[in-house]
Amino acid sequence: MSVLTITKDNFKSEIVESDKPVLLDFWASWCAPCMMQSPIVDQVAEEHPEIKVGKVNVDEQPELASAFAVQSIPTLVVISGGVTKEVLVGLHSKEQILKNF
Question: Catalytic: 17?
Answer without folding.
Answer: no
